[in-house]
Write a structure and sequence with these properties.
It holds the Pfam family DUF525. This is Co2+/Mg2+ efflux protein ApaG. InterPro entries: ApaG-like (IPR050718), ApaG_domain (IPR007474), ApaG_sf (IPR036767). The protein has one domain: ApaG domain (Immunoglobulin-like, Sandwich), CATH 2.60.40.1470. Helix content is about 0%, strand content about 70%. The protein contains no helices and 9 strands. Strands 4, 5, 6, 8 and 9 form a 5-stranded antiparallel beta sheet that branches. Strands 1-2-3-7 form a 4-stranded antiparallel beta sheet, with no helix packed on it. A hairpin with a 5-residue loop joins strand 8 and strand 9 (about 110-120). It is elongated. The two termini are about 20 Å apart.
Amino acid sequence: MIQQVTRGIKISVETHFEGMFYKNYRMHFAFGYRITIENQSNDSVQLKSRFWKIKDALNKTETIEGEGVIGQKPVLKPGESHTYQSGCLLTAPFGSMSGYYNMVNFTSTKKFKVKIPSFKLSAPYALN
C-alpha cells in the first residue's frame, strides 16, 4: 500500500492486476486500484475534481481530468474517510499513475490540491 498526507488529507492506494485482453488488434492490460481518502485535519473538506497522469512502459502518457471521483464529490468531516475503486487500461504490462485532487476547505473556503502518490502498475507474470 502506498500512502501520502497533504495538508491533513491522507491518500492510501492499493492496486491489483485484473487481466489482459485484445481490443482493436492490440493487447491491453487491465489494472484496478482502490483509494481511501482520509481527513486527518480539523476542518471539513470536499473533493471537487481529479487529475491523473497515466504512463505505460511504452512511453505512452495519458492525462485525465474530471469532476469528483466515480460520479461523487464526497464531503469529509474531520476523522471521516471515503473509499472508491476504479481502474485503467495500459498497452504494456507495466506503468504508473500519479495525480492530485482539487479540494475545498469549508472553514476557510480556500481551494487546495492533495497529491495522489505515484504508484506502479505491473502484471505479476511480467516480473520474472
